[in-house]
Amino acid sequence: MTKGHCELLKLKNLGMASVNILNAVGVHSYEDLQALGAVETYRRIRGRGINASKVMLYALQGALLDVHWNELEPGLKAKLVTEAENRSLTDA
User: Fold this and answer.
1) Tens digits of residue pLDDT in 30-63
2) What is the pLDDT of residues 56-82, one digit of tens each?
3) Domain range holding 33?
4) 28/64 Cα distance (integer angstroms)
5) Could you tell me the pLDDT band of residue 6, with boundaries at 50, 70 and 90?
6) Range 84-90 contact pairs with CB under 8 angstroms and sequence separation of 24 or more
7) What is the gyration radius of the CA atoms in the chain, in angstroms?
8) Which of 11, 14, 28, 78 has its CA 20 to 30 Å from the CA of residue 71?
9) How far apart are CA 57 and CA 76, in angstroms?
């Protein structure tokens, strides 16, 4: 296990499967995730053809905020989804 794996596994909401997906899209540390943000990271995951649900988006944001994804405010969840969908539309 790499240093990045260990660091990412310490974040809330992220398990080994999630960390492997993050590594596949170039996210190897908290700093990588922070630099890209939850929405862009999620967009990259989806762009690789990986079937990720909205929960993955919420989990990424929760990892950045150090909260369980289910504790995110409904308004923030809606904003994340809107941003992810809008970015996807502009990339098409």
Assistant:
1) 999 999 999 999 999 999 999 999 999 999 999 9
2) 999 999 999 999 999 999 999 999 999
3) 3-91
4) 14
5) confident
6) 84/39, 84/42, 84/43, 84/46, 84/57, 87/39, 87/40, 87/43, 88/43, 88/46
7) 12
8) 28
9) 11
Query: SS3 string of the chain?
Result: CCHHHHHHHCCCCCCHHHHHHHHHCCCCCHHHHHHHHHHHHHHHHHHCCCCCCHHHHHHHHHHHHCCCHHHCCHHHHHHHHHHHHHHHHHHC
pLDDT of residue 87: 67
Whole-number Å distance between alpha carbons of 4 and 50 = 21
Give me the CATH number covering residue 46.
1.10.150.20
Kindly report whether the global pTM for this prediction surpasses the value 0.85.
Answer: yes
